[in-house]
Amino acid sequence: MSAPDPNTTTASAPSTDVAPETAEADVTTGLNALLANATVFYQKVRHYHWNVTGPHFFTLHEEFEALYTFWNDAIDEIAEQVRSRGDRPVHTLADVLDLASLEEDPSTPAAEEMVEVVIADLAALDEQVQQLAERAEEADDADGAATVLEDLSEQIEEDRWMLRAWLNDL
């Protein structure tokens, strides 16, 4: 039997090419956790985009598309932050689901409930982003994660505001 490939990440042994005791490793681990949640969120919003129905179809279909398009780019930026630290971004669906704290939605809720779920997930993502930005600043992050995270937090807050406003208009 051959030795395990050190470049392979599994759900039971996520990649940690950076020494775990360093502040930078803490940021890298946090970025991978954020990447996992962002990936689950991205797929959930695509699911809602594909399956939204009812009188708000056109509005929400377009809004969900705008959200998943943004998160597609955000996922890439987060993964690049992980790579810039010499680690491997979480990349298998099994590892993503193992690492994520956000849940998939196997149901197809009503349009208003979809928006409520998206708002709740954005709140959870923003909390994670804020905490990770603080850790990056404390770690004197030279790779720019704090800036990426601050920009992400601003967009999350804008999206939450717009979706809350939409719900209040019903």
TrEMBL record:
Question: Spans of biased composition, class Polar residues?
Answer: 1-15
What InterPro entries does this protein's entry cite?
A: DPS_DNA-bd, DPS_DNA-bd_CS, Ferritin-like, Ferritin-like_SF, Ferritin_DPS_dom
Q: Where is this region: Disordered?
A: 1-24
User: What SUPFAM superfamilies would the database entry show?
Assistant: Ferritin-like (SSF47240)
Which GO-annotated molecular functions does the record name?
A: DNA binding; ferric iron binding; oxidoreductase activity, acting on metal ions
- State the PROSITE patterns in the record: DPS_1
Q: Which residues form a coiled coil?
A: 115-142
tRNA-binding among the record's keywords?
Answer: no
Question: What sequence ranges are listed for the domain Ferritin/DPS?
Answer: 30-170
Question: Does Coiled coil show up as a keyword for this record?
Answer: yes
Looking up Pfam families in the UniProt record yields: Ferritin (PF00210)
Please give the family membership noted in the entry. Belongs to the Dps family.
The protein's name = Starvation-inducible DNA-binding protein
Q: Which organism is it from?
A: Salinibacter ruber
